[in-house]
Protein 1
Amino acid sequence: MNNGNVLRVDRHATIGQKELLNEYVNNNKPVIITDSAKQWPAVGKWTPEFFKKNYPKVSREVRGEVITLADQIDRVLASTPERPAPYPYNLEVEDYFPDLMKDLEPQLLFGKMDRGASPLMPKILLHGTPIHEVFFGGNGSSFPFVHYDALFLHTQITQIYGDKDFVLYHPNDSQYLYPRSDNEKFSQVTNVFEPDLVKFPLFAKATPYFETLRQGETIFFPCGWWHTTLTHAPSITYGRVVLNSLNYDRYLDDKYKRWMGTGQSKLKANAAYAVGKVVGGVMSTMEAFR
Ligand SMILES: [Fe+2]
């Protein structure tokens, strides 16, 4: 990593809605809120032992291997940088742990309206988009590449258990991050801590933001911000995508491209897109009065 010029993300214990929107969300700037989620029942309750005891048989596949949550927790606890626990190991909270959604209240709001949670939002527009996810990682667990999130969604991440290091890059640094030709949201740079500058010389010009997110702290970063994470100890993270007026149209455009790419009928995709546009217009009108 370019240690000579590392930037920091602003931190607030708590923040008013107006300042949050004006200074950060609408300004395309990340922010850390240290205290707002500390009151959540999840913080203190969601531990590796809690999940192993209550949900041992839940499983997911990571790079071709089906791993139960009980096994993943064992691997998380034994994880080392040389033999890291498989990662990302993430599960949709509403699907796998619906009873635990109430542990994440009150939810934080990063827009005039939480469009993803609005009753106006047709289910079809969110189908296949994980909204609330929980990630289990251990010492040495890291994303295999720098990326920005799919569908132009903004991201909120709260550390429920343990700490996690974040490296972020401003969207303007995309020119130094060697986006992959098959997916422009993924960087070819696989290790930002020890980058291959012979292969990726321009990467030296990218300016990292570096932060350690502590237990109970929340980071918000807007869509298009490149990021990767690294943990040094067992970690449970809640990740939540955010849809508001700023990314709604880009989300819809990207979703439409996906529908078309996955063989959905053109008629169905066009109808869903048209409904999405109308709903977006209604939401914008409602937000204008808030
Ligand atoms: Fe991500």
Protein 2
Amino acid sequence: MQYYDVEAVRKLFPVVEKMTYLDSGFQTPMSTPVKQALEAFVTESYETAGPKSVWIERMEATRCKVASLLNAAPEEIAFTKNTSEAMNIAANALPLKAGDNVLLIHGDHPNNAYAFLNLKKKGIGVRFIAMTDVVNAESFRSHVDANTKAISMSYVTFHAGHRFDIESVGALCKEMNLYFVVDIMQAVGVVPIDAKKVGATFIGCGTHKGLLVPQGLGMLYWDRTRTELEPAYLAAISLRNPPSDFIARPDDMAVAPTASRFEIGNFNLSAIHALDAALDLIAQIGIDNIQAHCFALGDRLIHGLDALDVELVGPRDHALRAPHIYVAALPADQWMDYFASVDVRVSPERDGIRISLGMFNNASDIDRLLEVIRTRSRATGRSPQAA
Ligand SMILES: Cc1ncc(COP(=O)(O)O)c(C=O)c1O
């Protein structure tokens, strides 16, 4: 089934002519609209040095597009540098005190975990629950005690493509009056996300995977009803009334009523221009279509791996898996050089080789991957997993 004109989208990602790119979980190759947006920004800077006010106006328009992607209000979106910064802002805004504890998932992305582990020096406990194919409210419930104040987790795992039940965890947090922080780095741009349905306090991500922008830009959603959450860092931009004469006023330091309270200093304006173009492309195709297309490719991949007797690490079921991240149990140390030698871009992961999809991948990419696995196995006469 054709969810959108994939061949037209491929033309926007010229890298597909040079290699079989199955590594969007690492970073997405640059598309033509993103390149053009960056070039236009560079030309404008080069020829006219701005004006910055226009760039900021455009940034606000982009903020609205980010908000609509997450079903949030623009006032709930802050721009950050990356996921890590978003997670650290969130962790340090929570009103936690010595003796409190936070629940995380063992083996979740370290950039999420360290933001909270760093709070240990303030006497805040960090407890890890086990990671299984299913993580939902019940996985956390028995670990919540009187001192538990927050849960933080990824929606989609980078190393095996689990898609955890964040809506049920959000409901648990509401029921038990806990803050809920979600890392959507691997989900955003491919999996629909509704911040309100999730019931998250904070949601953070970078933009260099499903959002198609080079590294160095991230975002943070903040539930604006949580007005008690204040930033650990402060700059003029974070204030309700930034001093127009640029003289700091110690007696007027109320923070902005919007997520700007979490913004610090100037912005990555070039990347924000690129993000605007990327969000337009995603909106044109439709996030549901991107998700459905990736699921269909993923089904083809799983079927092909089964036929080759290569185990899939992580869940197979649509309800439990992300559409676009798959790990084949091929020993990375024995396969990565081979894949590079045949121009197949994938990533080594803790349990095998990660094959991650983007809007531009097609069935031929999957078939080529399967074919190169088959070719090498025939040549060595060994099963792929034995290499
Ligand atoms: C779940 C998850 N969180 C965070 C990151 C990256 O963090 P940052 O955006 O800070 O580089 C990644 C991968 O790059 C990831 O897979």
